[in-house]
Write a structure and sequence with these properties.
With 126 residues, the chain is mainly beta. Helix content is 0%, strand content 50%. It is built from no helices and 11 strands. Strands 2, 4, 5, 6, 9, 10 and 11 form a 7-stranded mixed beta sheet that branches.
Length: 126
């Protein structure tokens, strides 16, 4: 079992930046793909970014490409999401998730993920 805890959310102005972090406890991220999803008020949860475990391949939703960067620190057992040029439409609760066995492949669907954090809220004011 992996427990995931997100941090770094908050209120930021349009055009600002935030860095989200997700720490694992219970067991390591070893051999897990990692991803970030978000859920805006009144909308379904959607994919934001993901990376594989071994080759560090990444994938991004079109809406965040070139603005967000996902990275991992295996030694620290964390996955991060650097968010730049934030827009009001980025306002959402952001969730990190871990997918068992996604060593070289990237998981970008919710059903591919086995463990989820509780979420951290990001609000971008206009």
């Amino acid at each position: 079992q992996v427990q995931l805890v997100e941090s770094g959310g908050g209120l930021v102005q349009d055009g600002g930046s935030l860095r989200l972090s997700c720490a694992a406890s219970g067991r390591s991220f070893n051999r897990h793909g990692l991803g970030w999803f978000r859920q805006a008020p009144g909308k379904k949860r959607e994919f934001v970014a993901a990376l594989s475990w071994s080759v560090n391949s990444t994938r991004y939703a079109d809406s965040v490409k070139n603005r967000f960067t996902i990275s991992r620190d295996n030694a620290e057992n964390t996955v991060n999401l650097q968010m730049n040029s934030l827009k009001p439409e980025d306002t959402a609760v952001y969730y990190c998730a871990a997918a068992v066995g996604y060593i070289t492949m990237i998981a970008d669907r919710e059903y591919e993920y086995d463990f989820w954090g509780q979420g951290t809220r990001v609000t971008v004011s206009s």
